[in-house]
Each structure stands twice: as C-alpha cells, then as structure tokens.
Amino acid sequence: MEYIRSLCVYCGSSDRGPVAHKDAARAFGHELAQRGVNLVFGGGRVGVMGTLADAVLEGGGSVTGIIPDFLMRHEIGHQGITELEIVATMHDRKARMAELSDGFVVLPGGLGTLEELFEIITWKQLGLHTKPIVVVNSTGYWDNLRTVIDGIVAAGYARRKNVELAAFVDS
After folding, report:
1. Sheet (strand 167-169) strand order
2. Nearest by Cα to 76 from 53, 50, 55
3. Radius of gyration, CA atoms only, the chain
4. pTM of the prediction?
5. How far apart are CA 9 and CA 103, in angstroms?
6. Which residues pair with 162 in a beta bridge?
7. Closest Cα to residue 129, out of 159, 153, 94, 160?
8. Which residues pair with 84 in a beta bridge?
9. What is each CA distance from 45 to 13, 63, 106, 107, 125, in whole angstroms?
10. Can you point out the beta strands (E) in the chain?
11. Mean pLDDT by 10-residue block, N- to C-terminus, for the chain (171 residues)?
C-alpha cells in the first residue's frame, strides 16, 4: 500500500451526538497531525466534523475542506482551516474529496455520512478507485449497520467480498 498523505474523513455535522464521538474525533485529529497526514473533509465547523478539523489544526496539521456554496450561505463553513474550497453541489463536493484523498475513514455520523460511505464503497466495487476504506466503530456505533449489511448479504443482494471492501475497526 502506498503512503497515505491525504485522508478523507466522513463524519457527522451535528453537535447533538455523544461526547465520546467528539473525543474520538479529537484523538484521531491529533494523530493525523502528528503523522503529517492532510485531512480532507466536508468543510464544516460544527459537530464531529468541526471537532476533527480543530484537532488537526491544534496539532499543527493541514486541513482541506470542501463545501457546497449553499452551506457557506448558511455560515456553516469552517473559516479557520488551511484551505476551504467552495463548490457548486454536493456531488461536486464528494467527487473533489475523493480526488484529493489517498484513503477514506468513516467516523460516527448521520444519514449524510451513511450516504458517503455507501457511495465510496460502491465506487470501489465498480473499480473507480482502489483506495482503503475504514469504518471506525467507536463505542459500537456502527453495530446496527453491520447487522443490516449482513442481512443484505444473507438475502443475496451483495456478496461478502464486496462488503469487505470496507474494514470495520473499533478504534
């Protein structure tokens, strides 16, 4: 595997999630900074997303945010990061994040995070990229998702080898 210089992280933008998720994001952000890995993320200043970006910056790391114009108009964009790219649409955002990244990590989040996870796994299944995908199952947050995925495999709608395109880890 090639060296990871830039890592895309998908995670929640809500401040209502458990504190443990922000704590894990903070620790991960410090680790990224220490290893000199650029964070590529959705560009928000709130929730797990904002906590992660702030931690990378606190550690002296580099942060690239990609945010659609309509979210900037809602003043959600993180103005204090290394680079903030404003794009036209959510589709442009996801494509640009993937383009800039050597791999993907999924932290706890909501429906948008799930959508990003399934899209990037599907892109890998279709051969559009070969980059690693890691789902961080902090505090068992993604356990129910794994159950749903196992049910999809059991019903014959996915092959086990395709499900294994993303690695689930506890930390």
Report:
1. 83-87, 63-68, 38-41, 6-10, 103-106, 133-136, 167-169
2. 50
3. 15
4. 0.95
5. 9
6. none
7. 94
8. 65
9. 8, 12, 17, 16, 32
10. 6-10, 38-41, 63-68, 83-87, 103-106, 133-136, 167-169
11. 88 94 97 98 95 98 96 87 97 97 97 97 96 95 96 95 93 88
